[in-house]
Each structure stands twice: as structure tokens, then as C-alpha cells.
Amino acid sequence: METESHSTFLLEFHTSKDKFSSPDELISPIKELLEKNIGEVKEVYRRCNDESVNIILDCDMKSIATLQLKSSGLILMNIDVDGQHSSAFNQELAKKFETDVKGKLAAIASKSICPIRRGGPLDRFRYLTSSDERLLEYDVDHVVADVHSPFQHIQILHTINFGNLLVLDDLQNLAESDLVYTETLIQRGKIDYTGKDILILGAGDGALLWELLKEGPNMVTMVEIDETVMKLCSQHLRSACGSALDSTTGPHHQIIVGDCLAELDKLKSQSVLFDFVFSDLTDIPLSIKPQNKEWQFLLDVMEKSLSVLKPDGQFLTHGSGVSSVQSLANFELHLKNLKPPVEFKRCQAFVPSFMEDWVFYQVSKTPNNK
Asked: Which position among 123, 197, 275, 280 bears the catalytic label?
């Protein structure tokens, strides 16, 4: 049986350093206000050193409060409230508690953060991160699919605001609300795909294939390694992928289940060229350390993709969120240093389920290298 959801309230207070010499002068008023808001408080643990005083308080309503008093004057406080008593201590009361504590301590500044919910039936699906690893909270009301393929952890979560959301290895990939992602990636209305030969790498959700087929191409070849992703999306993300994944072949498309790097090598050996190559694979990593396999994979994909691109073709890919400034700069530096050289443009669009603006790239060979 699932445990009841708990809410953790995070608070901080900035006090003057001279008060740290008498920690009970700070702890006593906090205990007093906790008893006023939660009930009886009992100190069950205390550890002191030159840098901090750490305290655990056992409170009524099955609640626990932890305090860290730093020698800098910073006080960090967590209040963990049992879900059955969430109405007795909620965000509104937490804000009032923060104000009262700030006044009692004559704190210079204070902050309370909205509660983190844990332990409930859906709480483990609630939180994902932005491109630069900031916490995002999703309104998940049920889990549509939760399976492990040979390649990754696949989840499809139903959210109230975004519809069904595809999550791969705890990273949001696409939701039913995210047509703007695909339309920006293909530069709809700016690029003519009529009669063109197109290669898609990744994009197992099928949305990119579905939208490109509407553009009148000659042939779209899609390479996706994870057949399980495609099967689940064809069932549960149908408003995004339509019927594109119902068959591996059609008048204007073919789907190859396989490793994109191996397929790129095969295409190059066969002298097959495309008007457009789309990479809808991993995001640009935050790190460019040599041991970062994701970064090396992304670079290999790009360089091999350019080798199967027609002289006047384009390589189109997504980057990362606009807040991932350094990772985008690293990627663009690599583009500028490519041999033979390329030209590139970038644009951005707000993607609803990502809750941030996302950057997209259009890369082409320089005129003298076509």
C-alpha cells in the first residue's frame, strides 16, 4: 500500500553572525513558533561544531523539523509535514511562519519555498528538471505507461495541462501540447520540403515524421533504435504522431529500427545523400568533459550527418534550453570549428511541457565547400 504524501517546507533566514555564539537565543523562538503552529515540539538530536549547529525536532501531527545554524548567520530549516495534516500547515501558514520567525530573530532576510511533495502514489512522477537542472513540478494525475526497454526507462504520464507526456530516462521529450517544438524544428513555412529526400535520426515519438509527411516529401527515412518507444507512442501519443508509426513503410516513408551511427556509416558507404538530415536525439550536454559520452555521441552524429548531406542540404537539430548558456556556447564553438566549415542559424520557441524557451539550429555547408 502506498504511503501518504508528505510535504516538505523549505525556509531560510539570514541573521547577524554575532548571534551564533548563543544558538539557543535563535532556537528558542523558533521552537515557540513551531509549537504555536504545529503543536508540541521535542528536541531529539543536536550536534555542534565550529561551523554549525544541527538540530532535529520531533513535532506534533507526525511532523519533523530540522535546523542548521551556520556560523555565517544563515539558518536553514526544513519542516516535513504528514499528508494527513497538510491542511493544518500549508503554504499560506508557512509564509506567515516565515514572517513571524524573521521578526522574532530580527533576521536581515528570509525565504520560504513552496512545499516539495513526496511519498504519495504519483509524487515520484511529479518532478522533472529544466535544461540547466532546475526543479520543475508537473500536474501528473495518472501514469499511462512505465516500462524499461533494453535501451532506456520509458514513461508516458498524463498531465492536466500538457496532455500525455513522454519521459525518457527522467527527461521530458514531448507532450501532446508541443506541436510548436516540431514546427520550429522543421521551420514550417520557411523551408520547402516538396519532393525532397529526408533523413530523421531519433524522434521515436513519431511527431517529426508525421509533420514532415504533411509537407509533400519524396521520401522520409527515419532511424530509431528503440522500438518500444515507437509502439507506446503510437498508442498513447497519437495526437502528436498520428498514424505515422502504424507501419514501418509507406509511399513516402520508411522506418529503420537500428543504431543511427551504424546506419549513417552504411548510408555513406552506399553514397546515399539527403536534402535534409534531422537529429532529434539527445540534448546538448551541460558538460564537455572528455568522459562525457553523450557529448561525443552528439558530435559524432553531427559530423556523420554532414557526410550524407547534399551540397545544398541542411542539417537541422534542437539544442537545449536558452538558460543553458554555456552548453549552447560550447556547441556553437564546435560548429564554428568544424572542418570543412559550416554556416548556422539559431532560433527559439517556448515549448509548453518544457516550461522554457528551447533553441533550434539550422546548419548548412559554406558556399565554397558545397
From this structure: 280
